[in-house]
Design goal:
It contains 3 helices and no strands. The chain has 92 residues and is mostly helical. The protein has a domain of 27 residues.
Length: 92
């Protein structure tokens, strides 16, 4: 077996530390490089709040569901719920 002196151990340890530093340094990257290019840039002013007084545009009533369609959908959902409940009872 090889016998190493204290000076050789010190050089070996420093070499290992230097190699580890180079290896870990090569793995690091800029965080900015990891973000997609189509993201919006962050605002320069930190700590600003979103405007709460700006409301979204009013919803178009033409796209709302009519009461007849709503009743039909609710009936279909209740029928599906009942079918699942009876299927669960039969499975037991």
């Amino acid at each position: 077996m090889l016998a190493l002196t204290d000076r050789q151990w010190t050089r070996l340890a420093l070499g290992a530390l230097l190699a580890a530093a180079f290896a870990l340094g090569g793995c690091s990257s800029q965080i900015a490089d990891l973000t997609p290019s189509d993201t919006q840039p962050r605002p320069r002013e930190a700590g600003t709040y979103l405007p709460v007084h700006d409301l979204p545009p009013a919803r178009d009533e033409a796209g709302a569901i009519s009461p007849e369609q709503r009743a039909k959908i609710e009936a279909e959902l209740m029928a599906a719920r009942d079918r699942q409940a009876t299927a669960a009872k039969d499975a037991k």
